[in-house]
Amino acid sequence: LFELAAALRNAGFDVAYIDCLDHSHPSLSATKIKRRMDGTGSFLKTPHPRPAVLNFVPRKFGLYGIPAEAFDAELARAGAPDAVLVTSSMTYWYPGVFAAIGRVKAAYPAAPVILGGRYATLCAEHAEAYGGADVVAPGPWEVAAPEALRKSIGADVELDPSAARSRPAHDLARDRSVAGVSFSRGCPFRCTYCASRVLAPEFEQRSAADAIAELEYLIEKVGARHIAFYDDALLVNAGEVLEPVLRFVVERGYGVNFYTPNAIHAGLVTPELAALMKKAGFGHIRLGFESSDAGFQSETGGKVSAGQFERAAEVLRGAGFAPPELGAYLLLGHPSQTAEQVSDSVRYAASLGVEPVLAEFSPIPGSRDFDLAVRSFRVSPALDPVLHNSSIVKYQHPSISTEEFETIKREADDLRKKLRT
Hints:
Elements: H1 2-10, E1 45-47, E2 62-64, H2 68-78, E3 84-86, H3 94-107, E4 113-116, H4 118-122, H5 124-130, E5 135-137, H6 141-153, H7 161-166, E6 178-181, E7 184-185, H8 196-199, E8 204-205, H9 208-222, E9 226-229, H10 242-252, E10 257-259, E11 264-265, H11 271-280, E12 282-290, H12 294-299, H13 306-318, E13 326-332, H14 339-351, E14 355-360, H15 368-377, H16 402-420
Parallel strand pairs: 3-4, 4-5, 6-9, 9-10, 10-12, 11-12, 12-13, 13-14
Antiparallel strand pairs: 1-2, 7-8
């Protein structure tokens, strides 16, 4: 998003930015919303009419983020725009996207609304049918945005992605102490439950010099102190990209905190890299493991083996990482999993001193396992995106009962607590 904003600025546009999940927004100052130093925590929830597909859920439905009145005030402050670009990180957040589009159109009926990003890419037909945007622009921003601007306002715009990636518009954020970065796009691996290749068909990696330039700007000029890496394959070619970047950070003595919410590849962890990550300030390491079952690993892409995971755990512990700093994502609810496989994986990770962090399966359009989920769970291929949210619908193997599902989650919680004592 900040890359696109930078590219638009470089092309001569004035850019105003509204973050509906801005935890530091003045409208939230009187609330009791708790946030951590790293920017994570709760969000304000405002009641909102539920989508019809959720009528079976007895709980109240709501939207997270700044109040609608605060959003309207931000719109008014920005002034009449030539065009409004809207995006969303999750497909199942579309009710909030639709609400935002409706308020934009009420405030500026003459301004075309362009909807892009993950939801527009993975659920383009749904967005076209129900979103209310004037243009739905699926695909990478450097291709989608110029075409959408040409269609909506007749602007023949050339956007330079390379310049924008070396210096995204991080300064647009209100809280500049926290930030997210990506030194690559896409992923060279082929995990069947992931749609990374739909969002970015080719794996593209920036140079170390380019990545260093962004970090230097972000830390020294913007003031970021908590930085999350959102790469899908952060450790690929680490010797050419990540390691030089981290050596630069150590040499400068920045004292920042780094995080890996997207998980790192266990098979690519080396003693040298682990030690460097510790020195550079990585506070939380999350390994992508998914399952200790060799058959399941092979069936879903063969990204990492149990042996590679064991070596990574040993190396990271040796570098000084320990729970709660060190954890591994494990899949729960995949159509091919049994309760025994998941439980074994939980205990296996814990036995190696790694916190088991359960990631509940969600059927993502475009992934190979979406079709498997359609067959296994007997859901429609045109599944409403709000049902991609695994906190609403528990996707699980037919042989796993709800009681077993909850037992596994309690077991993981108990083992995490034990590892921390």
